[in-house]
Each structure stands twice: as structure tokens, then as C-alpha cells.
Amino acid sequence: MMDSILKRILEKKEEEVENYRNKGIPALEVFRQPKSLIKVLNNSKEIAVIAEFKRASPSKGLINGIPHPGEQAKLYEQAGATAISVLTDSTFFKGSFRDLEEVKSSVGLPVLCKDFIIDEIQIDLAYRAGADLILLIAAALEAERLRELYLYARSLGLEVLVEVHQEKELNDALMTGAQLIGVNNRNLRTFKVSMENTANLGPKVREAGAMFISESGFKGREDALLAAQAGADALLIGETLMTTDSLKKKTAEFIVSKPEVLTK
After folding, report:
1. Active site residue 94
2. Is 167 annotated in the active site?
3. Annotated catalytic residue within 13, 35, 114, 204
4. Residue 33 included in any domain
């Protein structure tokens, strides 16, 4: 049974979705070709860094009061990031779709909308804001609903990062046909972090034929090397990059070569 933090977040998301419906969001007019993170990862000999713009979190409170996400995104791009993740949840992470719009207009990298998505209308809003890919969290959705939202996002041309934290969720993710699977080192029910999750689940993602993104908890090069040995194609890093005084130097710590036996 879902408890504490994740449960509270999802309850709030249900309220938000109802508010969006009441506002009568206009139908989408598909008019753009999203950038492909998959193509970028396939062509890289190094583990990519997906740098996250993250203002706050339920466990840490305010992380960084940076007022302009576009400026931070440019710094990420200059520091060597391969893609940018933007946390758009407002209640618990102090983000917004406006943050996503600003990031998209500021960089030429693929941009991920990271949120607790439970409904197609949120995917529409992410698309309007300029997302190239979205996050779907297996722990937040029943298996059939996960598949429905995955297929809807793909119908718009968006790529989908399906996030898992345990093996059952990985099985649900693989049933969608997802090409990008993220292993979250943070338990969303407790917000406790263990890099062992990457070591345990990462190889199973690769064995299944999907691309593997390790998420959360990265502090330095040792963590990046652990993820590399587990087969990671990319690392999603937020708090460490949002709080560092030396962004280029810190980002460089995480950009490591893929072990030869794990390269495609």
C-alpha cells in the first residue's frame, strides 16, 4: 500500500488534474518534432549526464532559489550535460510548466518533463511547454494505466522515461515496450536513497534490451563508476548539481566512459 510522501503527492495530483479539466484546456495541435534522447545516448561512448533543474523537494525543502531556470540550463549545457530535466510539480517541488518553457527556449538539448503524471492532460501540458520526453513513474500507476499513458505520449512523438524502484515495477515497465527505463535510487514512499538499487536493477534493465538511466543520489565520481559497472547509459542528477559552487568541475566528475563490455 502506498504511504506517506508518494500518497500525498498523488492525492494532490488528482486535484490538479480536476482543476485542469475544469479550466477546459484546448485540444492539442501537434506541430513539432521532439528531440530524441535515445539517438543521443546511442551515439555516445560516455555515460550521459541529465542535469535537473530542481528548486525543492519534500525531504530537503528549498534546495536552490535560482530565479531563472533558463540561465541554469545554459550553464548545464556549457558544463557538458546531454539533456535537461525540469521538475514541474508546484506543490512539493516548487516547479512549474513555465520553468519547462523557459528551459526549452534556452538550450538545444532534449528536455525531460519530470512530474507525477497520472493523466493525459498533464502530457498535453508538457507537450505544449516544449518537453521532448516525459517521465512516467511505475510506482504511481497501475500497470494498464502506465501502458495507456505511455502509448498516448508516444502518439505525440514524445519519448518516455519509465521509472522503477523494484523488480515488479520493472516488469510493468517492460510490458509497455519502453526503450528508456530509469532506476530510481530514491524510494518515493520514504525518500531514502540507496545506490545499491542501481547495482541490483541496472543489469536487469540492460538484459531486457532497454536503455538504462540511473536516477538520484549521485554525489561524486565513485557513484558514477558504480552506475557504469551496472550498465547505465545516463545519470539523472539534480540536487548535487543545483548546489555545487563549481558546476563544470562537478559535472565532469560524472562523465565517465562506458565499460567496453557494456557498450552497444
Report:
1. no
2. no
3. 114
4. no
In the chain, the amino acid numbered 10 is L
Query: What is the domain count for the chain?
Result: 1
Catalytic residue among 185, 197, 214, 216: 216
Place of cell 492525492: 11
In a domain, 15, yes or no: no
Q: Is 232 helix (H, G, I), strand (E, B) or coil?
A: coil
Confidence of residue 260 (pLDDT cuts 50, 70, 90): low
Please tell me the distance from the alpha carbon of residue 50 to that of residue 132, in angstroms, as a whole number.
13
Is 149 contained in some domain?
yes
**Active-site residue flag, 39:** no
**pLDDT tens, residue by residue, 36-48:** 999 999 999 999 9
Does the active-site annotation cover 246?
no
pLDDT of the residue at 64? 78
Cα 80 to Cα 46, 47, 51, 142, 178: the distances in Å are 11, 11, 9, 36, 26
Domain carrying residue 62? 46-262
**Predicted model pTM:** 0.93
- Residue 228 cell numbers, joined: 557504469
| DSSP-derived 3-state class of residue 144 | helix
CB of 251 within 8 A of CB of 84? Answer: no
Element (H, E) at 82: none
**What was the pLDDT predicted at 35?**
96
257 is catalytic: no
Kindly state the DSSP code that residue 110 receives in the 8-state scheme: -
54 is catalytic: yes
User: Which three three-digit cell numbers place residue 112?
Assistant: 525531460
Q: Alpha carbon 174 to chain centroid distance? A: 17
112, with CB counted inside 10 A (0-12, 13-18, 19+), is buried
The one catalytic residue among 16, 163, 169, 253: 163
Does the active-site annotation cover 216? yes
